[in-house]
Amino acid sequence: MPRPTLVDVAKIAGVSRATAARVLSGETKVDVRMAAAVERAAKELGYEANSAARVLRGGRAGAIALIVAFNELDSLTGTFFTSVLKGAAKGLYAGEVQPVLLPADHEDGDRIPRFLRSGAIDGAIVILQHEITHLAQALVDSPVPIAWVGRPRVALAPDAIVVDSDNYGGGRLAARALADAGRRRLGIIAGPSDMEPARDRIRGWRDELAQLGIDDSPIVHGEFTLVSGSAAMARLLKRHPDLDGVFASSDLMASGAIRVLQAAGRRVPSDVAVIGFDDVSIATTMDPTLTTVRQPLEDMGRVAAETILAVVQGRDVDRRPILDTTLVQRESA
Amino acid sequence: MPRPTLVDVAKIAGVSRATAARVLSGETKVDVRMAAAVERAAKELGYEANSAARVLRGGRAGAIALIVAFNELDSLTGTFFTSVLKGAAKGLYAGEVQPVLLPADHEDGDRIPRFLRSGAIDGAIVILQHEITHLAQALVDSPVPIAWVGRPRVALAPDAIVVDSDNYGGGRLAARALADAGRRRLGIIAGPSDMEPARDRIRGWRDELAQLGIDDSPIVHGEFTLVSGSAAMARLLKRHPDLDGVFASSDLMASGAIRVLQAAGRRVPSDVAVIGFDDVSIATTMDPTLTTVRQPLEDMGRVAAETILAVVQGRDVDRRPILDTTLVQRESA
DNA sequence: TCCGATCCAGAGATCGATCTCTGGCCATCA
DNA sequence: TGATGGCCAGAGATCGATCTCTGGATCGGA
Predict the structure, then answer these.
(1) Which of A42, A104, A255, A293 has its CA 20 to 30 A from that of B115?
(2) Cα B109 to Cα B133: distance, rounded to the nearest angstrom
């Protein structure tokens, strides 16, 4: 038996489609007895509005895409993704909007642009963007608004929606924490210099050290991965064997760095203190556990959802929210 | 300017709506010159079919829900979820169907049943089910087909779709691996006895030990969590201080168990070998790294997607696929 | 050359919710 | 008592793609 429609409800309630629609979409100017009859009929039939018909007539899809580069996911970076996804999905759900998952790394490169034009969604949230620069132009040219979680490498329009954590402030936090622990011979393992968040972390780190009167010149670069962190630490240690504190600007690089330090006979934290950045799961499972600058990933997802909902609904809202980073004290520093 | 419709395409191509529709939906019985004109017009306008109209007319939504209990997610179990989600999302996407995320732990308990009735989706995949028994009845009564990844605690219809790994075989694998390593005084930290997968792991373990002529009586139960694994290990060790091998039927419980063993002065694996179950991220980051029985999580997600697509499309398919578990050899056994 | 069969283009109808617009009903006031 | 205004129920139209059904055109055979 087919799903009940508004006509069925109206027939049972003894009213017209229009009246039934008015009742069920919350219109108030309806006779209370008729309204009650409609409510009763709807309940009796288990009526639920057909979303396709509503969308077709109304113009708004009631869905937001979550664009995810699944191939970037592995057991180490998984929590990054999971946390943001959780925040975004819950934020959208709370706004009565369906989150539609779009794998960004599928072979058919034309599929996402086509989907953005299909009217099936009102907007999109891009969750990981390191490797999807090939999609960048398609996303920038999107007919529906896009919210970026973290700043991508591509040039964005001035009114683009970007939700980010306070990378600059996080750099300052790391510097101050190491200084407060009495460390004075410090080095930084920075991210790729063509990534704005990486540059902001360096800037914060340097500004804070300058203010404290500590040498800020020891710097090497990695690619945010574990192995690049190991390699970077080896270079840094060669140039500055007397270091007593290191800021690795991702947890994965911190993990790689600590392995190299331990292999070189340095104890962490007694000989060299190490601070990471992100606070993903590896920070709690490694030995020693990692002191790190925490990005509020779930909040970032939630704020991205709330922001794009506001934009879709035409409300005025801050399109570049920046969320605070915090220091999480554990064993490594 | 509004999105182009089929009428616009037809007008530019100089044909009727029906002809344009025939061309764009792959119908062959159309004059090649007309077809070419339609294709050209569609490309020129950047035409993309309105999915709401297609759904309204066609009856099939082209979307499958992914029901996820986000509150169960944390940094330790995240990879379980992530892997299944990845497989499911890619499987659905490859089948030209949109994956719609549904948080199962939202306050509004009536929302998911309502959504299942809205016609917005053709089916659903349930990814984590430990804590969502309150939704069970709603899901069992669903008007659209449901695929369960892993067996839930609720009673299912005989034609229910359940994708599972070979828990029984995994139990046998664990027993054989410990026996092959020369261990003879073995114990098992089992899962809750009201969960069928937990019972299957026990059965496999016991059958294999019986066949090998090894005592299978040492058994304690945990709740699949890290702390319950620690507590269970403590009980097991108290009753059987001379154990030289332990099968913990989840990686988290294995992790908790190893901490207790080490605290009790036992070296792992030289004094006591430990095998886990799942192969989630903690297995690779703990020390020693964990030898474990691997569930093919991503494959389970993919198979769930393929199975429900087949059911939705009315194709004949195995509704209870069971995927092989494998032993992953690392340091702990 | 004419008729019948085949093929295919196009007008109309359809899916279900909702917006517009008309008109009926009731109340109030002259 | 009749007229005017307000309020609200209901018929019709609408969104866009696609299925049905009709009829015109073309081709082959007689």
Answers:
(1) A104
(2) 12
Number of structural domains (chain A) is: 3
* Predicted confidence (pLDDT) per residue in B150-161, tens digit: 888 888 889 999
| CB atoms A119 and B94 under 8 Å | no
AA letter at A55 = V
pLDDT tens digits for range B222-239 = 999 999 999 999 999 999
Q: Would you say residue B56 lies in a domain?
A: no
For residue A294, the tally of other CB atoms under 10 A from its CB is 20
Q: Taking CB atoms and an 8 Å cutoff, what residues of chain A touch B285? A: 282, 285-286
Q: Whole-prediction pTM value?
A: 0.89
For residue A200, with 0-12 CB atoms within 10 Å meaning exposed, 13-18 middle and 19 or more buried, which class applies?
buried
> In terms of residue numbers, what domain contains B212?
167-295
Which of B46, B75, B284 faces A79 most closely, judged by CB atoms?
B75
Walk along chain A (333 residues) and give the pLDDT tens digit of each residue.
678 999 999 999 999 899 999 998 877 778 888 889 999 999 999 899 999 999 999 878 889 999 988 877 766 666 778 889 999 999 999 888 999 999 887 766 788 888 888 888 999 999 866 666 677 777 888 889 999 998 888 888 999 999 999 999 999 999 999 999 999 999 999 999 988 999 999 999 999 999 999 999 999 999 999 999 999 999 999 999 999 999 999 999 999 999 999 999 999 999 999 999 999 888 887 889 999 999 999 999 999 999 999 999 888 999 999 999 999 999 999
Say if the Cβ atoms of A48 and B119 lie within 8 Å.
yes
B29 touches strand D (CB under 7 A): no
Same domain, B291 and B188: yes
Write the residue in A53, A98, A103 that is nearest to B100 by C-beta. Answer: A98
Distance from CA of B61 to the nearest CA of A (A): 8
- Report if residue A328 sits inside a domain: no
Of the candidates A90, A100, A107, which has an alpha carbon nearest to the alpha carbon of residue A68? A100
By the CB < 8 Å criterion, does A80 face chain B?
A: no
Q: Which residues pair with B274 in a beta bridge?
A: B246
Structure tokens given for B93? 């996407």
**Residues 66-105 of A with CB within 7 A of strand C:** none
Closest CA relative to residue A319, chosen from A332, A331, A308 = A308
Yes or no, beta carbons of A48 and B118 under 8 Å apart = yes
Whole-angstrom Cα distance, residue A235 to residue A231?
6
| DSSP notation for B290-301 | PEEEEP-HHHHH
Q: Which residue has the tokens 């993919």?
A: B302
Ranges of beta strands (E only) in B142-221 are: 146-149, 161-165, 186-190, 219-221
Å: A12 CA to C25 C1':
24
Query: Which residues 6+ apart lie within 8 Å of A224 measured at CB?
Result: A130, A191, A192, A198, A249, A250, A252, A253
Residue B57 falls inside a structural domain: no
* Chain-centre distance for alpha carbon A311: 18
Contact B119 A3 (CB under 8 A): yes
